[in-house]
Structures are given as structure tokens and as C-alpha cells.
């Protein structure tokens, strides 16, 4: 039977928050060559760069609706990557903006879910979350401070967003991020309930400890060819280190005062 015959979904949306392993998961899914090529196409800071990569006409030559429609078509093509399955990574902070864009393109639909399915077809929603929110907050603060967001398994840098500098423990900043991450994760769950969506739940802890098993789970849910677990090679490594553990210990001590 062909992949098209077995496939259960037209696409998927990775519904996440920062530092939940979404980059690792996107790399894994893209590596299968059967499960799309997911990216954060609707992260507002990156829209102009994506539009330039896709050779879209200059934004000043179109009205807003024309640009958004052209951008959507290009995003679907890029996120499908010739596999027949569309992949999108979406952070909770960008959800409402994407819904508003789709409402402009497809007016009159009654819900976010209806708009997403009009745009992307039958969608599998993957809720990617991290149980240890303190570790998540520490990872986020550390990445923001050092400018280093992702490394390869051999230690080479994959993504750096700022010049290198030493991280400094900051209780107030970690606490603020901890609260915000909890809020965003809860907001996803509220949205799933409002939209009557039962997501496929994927935890960072399992993803990071056994990426092959997680990839197999998602491919099976999508109904696409499942890779041989022995052939799965994660393209992203953990950044957690002794500094991360020290910050967590210090945070617990400071929070208890």
C-alpha cells in the first residue's frame, strides 16, 4: 500500500513552548523524508526572512491579504517538502496571530480548528511539553544570556542568536520565565479543550532520552512510513550542564527563603 493510502493526516502542528525539544523533533521528522519539513513559519520575527527565501514578491507591492495568501501557499510547500505531509512548529505566543491571518484568508469560519483545517487539511496536533518547568526556565534564561540555542551531537554550534557571553544566575528572571512557561503550557491545554482537540502528547523527557521511540510514535500516528529505530540519528544535543544543575539548586534554596 502506498504512503498516501496509509496516511491518516494531511499534516501536523507541533504545539510547543520554548526549550521543549522542538528543534530536535523538527530535525527528526524532517530526516525521515516522509513526514514533512517542519519549521516555525509563523514566528513573526522570521516572516520577512522566509518570504525572501521563497522569493515572494516585495510586500510593498501587495495588500495584506494578498501577501498572507501567498505566504501561506509558500509555507505549505516548504513545510511539506515534497513528502505529502505538512509540518508546522507553533509556539503558543504565535497562535492567535496565525488564527487571525487565516481568518482573513478564510473568513466566516467558526473556530481556530476550522481555520487550521481549511488551510492545512486534516491535522494531527502534537502537544510538546516539558514536565520539569524549572529546568525549562533555566534552559531558556541560559540560552538568552549566552546566545547559544542549539548544538549538534559533536558539540558544534547549530544556532547562535547573539555573541557569546558567560551566563549569570538570576533568580528573578528564572522565576519570571518559569511562570510564563507554565502559563503558556496551560493555555495550550485550555485551547485544546475549547477546540475539542485531543492532541498527541509528547514529553520532552521521553523525547530527549529516547528520540527514536518518539519519532516512531509520531510516524505511526501520522500513518507514514516508520523509520528503523536503529537508523535514527538525533541532529541536536542537550545543552544542560553543571551550570544548569547549579542554577536549579540555587533556585530551590532562594525560593525557600
- Strand arrangement within the widest β-sheet reads 2-1-3-6
Instruction: State the assembly state of the protein chains.
Output: single chain
How far the N terminus sits from the C terminus, by CA atoms, comes to: 62 Å
Individual helix count: 11
Number-wise, the strands total 6
What overall geometry do the principal axes of the alpha carbons give?
globular
Structural class: alpha/beta
Order of helices and strands: HEHHHEHHEHEEHEHHH
- Low-confidence regions: 1-5
Helix content: 40-55%
Radius of gyration: 19 Å
User: How much of the sequence is in beta strands?
Assistant: 5-15%
Global mean pLDDT: 91
Major sheet characteristics: 4 strands, parallel
Description:
The protein is globular, with a radius of gyration of 19 Å. The chain is built from eleven helices and six strands. Residues 1-5 have low confidence and may be disordered. The protein has helices at residues 3-6, 22-31, 47-53, 64-80, 92-105, 112-120, 133-146, 171-194, 204-209, 211-222, 242-255, and strands at 11-16, 86-91, 123-129, 148-151, 157-160, 200-203. A four-stranded parallel sheet has the order 2-1-3-6. It has a two-stranded antiparallel ribbon with strand order 4-5. The protein has 257 residues and is of the alpha/beta class.
